[in-house]
Input
Amino acid sequence: MRERMPGKMHQDETRCKAVILTTHFNGWHGIYFKLNSNNMPTKTKQKEKTKNIVALTGDQAASEAMRQIDPDVVAAYPITPQTEIVMNFSQFVDDGKVSTEMIHVESEHSAMSACVGSAVSGARTMTATSANGLALMWEIVYIAASTRLPIVMPVVNRALSAPINIHCDHSDSMGARDSGWIQIYCENAQEVYENVIVAVKVAEHKKILLPVMVCQDGFITSHGVEGIEIFPDDKVKKFIGEYKLEHTLIDVDNPVTYGPLDLQDFYFEHKRQQSEAMKNAITTIPEVLAEFNRTFGKSHDLIEEYRLNDAQIGIVALSSTVGTTKTVVDELRKEGLKVGLLKPRFFRPFPKERITKALAGLKAVAVLDRSESFSNEGGPLFTEIKAALYESAKRPLVTNYIYGLGGRDIFPEDIKKVYKDLEDIKKNGKVGSLVNYLGVRD
Output
């Protein structure tokens, strides 16, 4: 079972009428839906609202957001399952739909190097990658963050080799979790589209000036077709605004230096400044999200709580697994079980206070990790949440499940098993096994 689609209508959601038309949208043949809410059960007749819903994959959603952003420079190298992002955007460049300078390079290391050069010149810069491509640009990923360059990079999560595997897990982006990049994880293609737009505003904010990864699950989201609400181009342009770097390398009248030799005398201070920027991000990002929500009628936040208010046990998960878990939560709720779900949208900066507050009322929590840290202490998301809860006055029992490595499917039955285990933990008052492996053969 795939994650729940954003366009799918449920009994407890607003019913919408749909007129389906075939269309040719920015080079893609697809389905175009005109949705209106004139049949909403309200006492007074409401003005008809129309949304543009286009059938796109997660990769296409990312490239469509990039088209609307129209960055000055995109430097990229294709790698499965990210290829369609740069392939589609290259088509936009060729068709004259954007004014972007597209730099085709021979490797991801060169792609990020070109992005750094572009960004220090004051250009709005983007790229995209996956897995081994992210690993190949590793050296420059750190340089981009340390130099405080607001580069936006969609990352299509894929397992790192070896063995060679092209399917989804989070080992690539989680490996870069301490590189200094902001990280956003997307549940579905709609969030991919919206978070790419948000990422530009976040990265370029003067209190932040840090690069951003927008992560989506390889093939599950990147190649799955969903109905995506596309915002008007002019509203997107107005939201992100014009970008102007205060100190650029090409301003010969006000010369600056980027990337100098920085030894014991100043390196530590510059790292501290970088740390302060991430601290600024945790307080500034909600302001950006609030503006996005007002502009586009959305409800983005650092985290998303799903039926947690009266829950006794809960799961914490990232990305597409959240959709499947929501379906399981709804099913178990009908059986009378008080279960809930927490979805961190941002992993960097880590929203510690929001997470601990959301989990405070639970008796037992399971953290699902789609990557292995090989620390013997659990996956990256688990260890961060466990540490965050250490000083919490109300601390639930916490256990970890590593799952889905190399793209192995996670089914509703797997998630139901986790909730059953949590019921046992709640009943017994102790965690039997700290780190568990879900859906793997012994």
